[in-house]
Write a structure and sequence with these properties.
The protein has about 220 residues and is an alpha/beta fold. It is built from 8 helices and 8 strands; from the N terminus they run E-H-E-H-E-H-E-H-E-E-H-E-H-E-H-H. It has an 8-stranded parallel beta sheet with strand order 1-8-7-6-5-4-3-2. It binds D-xylitol-5-phosphate and zinc ion.
């Protein structure tokens, strides 16, 4: 199934609740929450309280993207705050298998994210354990960047790996996605689309509807 996951990193945080409700009512199935630690990525953003705040205003899937070192230390808290899907970076932990099972033991869906320069082949063994792979189309840490062209080929490679092995893992893409390039990225095999500035940079409800319209074609 194709789903849209508006990234609240670009939302007007003075009215976060209203903005989440707007994209929810416009039909977005997921809400993407970026957690950053200032170490794994050179920026800070949200923490556990924002996950709880979003949980208070929507029943949609809370899609938490953890751009933090040692993500295993935060999984319990993020899950208890109401995350439905917890994605950790391949590059951020030495014990990926243990961290994935910790997410599942909490009752959440588990995802792994890979940075642009990380090949999809590193996921070969862990793939059957995953609900989702997040392919970063920009270097993580900031909204509003331009998509790195070579990352789209990685989506194609990952889709082939999943299909060859008859797995049911979702492919999420994040970074630089707009109304002009979303169809091309979906053609490569992505089915969960994250977008921040292209949704919250204008009327969030209208932009959500436009994305969903293109994604149904
Ligand atoms: C960046 C974040 C993204 C960000 C995307 O590291 O992971 O979720 O909000 O923003 P846009 O869609 O503006 O590139
Ligand atoms: Zn993200």
């Amino acid at each position: 199934m194709n789903c849209l996951s508006p990234s609240i990193l670009s939302a007007d945080l003075t009215r976060l609740g209203e903005q989440v409700i707007a994209v929810d009512q416009a039909g977005a199935e997921y809400i993407h929450i970026d957690i950053m630690d200032g170490s794994f990525v050179p920026n800070l953003s949200f923490g556990v309280p924002i996950v709880s705040a979003c949980r208070g205003v929507t029943d949609k899937i809370l899609d938490v993207h953890m751009m933090v070192e040692h993500p295993e230390t935060l999984i319990d808290a993020v899950s208890a705050a109401g995350a439905d899907l917890i994605t950790i970076h391949y590059e951020a932990t030495r014990h990926l298998d243990a961290a994935i099972h910790k997410i599942k033991d909490c009752g959440a869906m588990a995802g792994v994210a890979i940075n642009p320069a990380t090949p999809v082949s590193v996921l070969s063994e862990i793939l059957p354990e995953l609900d989702m792979v997040l392919v970063m189309l920009v270097n993580p840490g900031f909204g509003g960047q331009k998509l790195i062209p070579y990352t789209v080929e990685k989506v194609r490679q990952l889709k082939a790996m999943i299909d060859e092995r008859h797995l049911s893992c979702d492919i999420e893409v994040d970074g630089g996605i707009n109304l002009e390039n979303v169809s091309r990225i979906m053609d490569a095999g992505a089915n969960i689309i994250v977008s921040g500035s292209s949704i919250f940079g204008g009327d969030a409800a209208e932009n959500t509807e436009e994305f969903l319209h293109l994604m149904q074609e």
